[in-house]
Structure formats: structure tokens, C-alpha cells
Amino acid sequence: MNRTATIAAILSTAVALGTTACTTTTEDSSYAASLTAAVSAPIVEEAWTETPVRDIGRIGQWMIAADGKVANWLGMTRDGKPFHEPINVIFVDAGARSGEDAKARLVDAMTKAGYPERTGHSAGYRGIIDGQLYSQLPERKDHAFSTHPFPEDNNHGRIFGPAKTDAGWVFVGALSREDVDYKHAPPQHVYDSFNRARDDLAAALDGKGFYRRGETVPMNNADGPGAPFTTGDHDGNAVVVRAK
User: Fold this and answer.
1) Does this model's pTM top 0.85?
2) Three-state secondary structure along the chain?
């Protein structure tokens, strides 16, 4: 068995990732329904923080885990501080005919950009747009949009929405890069970068589908001196990508 096959077998046990094997279509449908119900579950005050973004709306600063807290990148720490996972991409679709059409266009654009839906990732997260909670895309258990299969280094992300606004249908996303650390037994995923994944996705979307890279906006969601958490290399900004 080669190295990639070995890591696949190990990681698929879900010890390191907190995930299970790929689910069936019926299970995916049940899971999507559970995500819709989950948006009413309470979240902690720290996670309910929004930043006004001009001409778009109020965007939640963080990806929110199923327990209502800020998502913490698999519980990993840096210098003794837990990670907070920032919202770092905003999608605005001014051309979609409906929310479902906006979802379909987004999935198509992500796939063409090299970020199809893949298994092997934790799921069940939420995001905030204009004071409302939204469940996760992909609407499949243990899936995220990802550049490579989970046994390999990859950029991956979850996207939340859509919200109908004057600007169009708005989604928000949390993108990160993870590497496979073979020094651990068993091998595990480790954090690499938020900025690298954000910028790669924006560049990959640009010109390959409906979306074009637009402006960069301040989200004010990077750590600072004395913060009890870390946001890694995140610079506090989100990239806006727009579709007509």
C-alpha cells in the first residue's frame, strides 16, 4: 500500500478528523434537513459578532460550530491559544433567479474552480448574514469544498447562505489550508493558512465560471495583542467575489 493509501485508511477512521465515511444520498437528504433545523439552535455571544460591509450588509465574523461557539479548527492550538476560524470570502450573486438557483450556480462555480464537494471533512457549521443564521454548503454529511482528497494537503472551505439583499444573493465562506503531518502517529491534519486558501479560491473562481474577483473588505476578525485566541495568518480581510 502506498503512502497516500495508507493515510487514507488511517484518517478515514475519523480519529483525527471527527468524520465518517461518505454517506448515501438518503443520508445526505436527512442531513440537509437537519442543517435547516439547526439554524435555530442558540449560539454564544462571542460568536454573534457582525461587521458592516458597504453595499452588501452585516457579515458575521466567524464560522460557528454545532455547539454554538466559534469554530476552533479541530481543537488545535498555537502558542497555547485556540484558533478562531474567520469568515474570509463573501460571494454576491446578482444574476441568480432564486436562492436555489444561487446555490446551484455557486456549486457549479466552485467545481469549475477546482473546489468540488469532497468527503473527509467536518461539517454542520453555520454563518451569519444580516443577523440571520444560515446552514452550510455543501449540504452533505462530512463534506466540504476542497481542492484535493482529504488524505492530501488541501485548501477547503464551507459556505453559508444565501441571503437575499439589494446587492443580490449573498453567501459567506470560511476557507483554510490544511496539511497532513506524517510525523504524528496516526498522521493528522494540521493548520497551514487562512490567507493562502482565501486568495487561491478567489483567483481560481475568477474567469472560470459565474464569479469574478472584486474588492477586499475589512472584517475586523483577526486576533490582536492580548487576544485569548489566534487567527493564524489571517489579516482581518475578506475577498468579495461577484457574479452577474
Assistant:
1) yes
2) CCHHHHHHHHHCCCCCCCCCCCCCHHHHHHHHHHHHHHCCCCCCHHHCCEEEECCCEEEECECECCCCCECCHHHCEECCEEECCECCEEEEECCCCCHHHHHHHHHHHHHHCCCCEEECCCCCCEEEECCEEEEEECCCCCEEEECCCCCCCEEEEEEEEEEEECCEEEEEEEEEEEEEECCCCCCEEEEEECHHHHHHHHHHHCCCCCEEEEEEEECCCCCCCCCCCECCCCCCEEEEEEEC
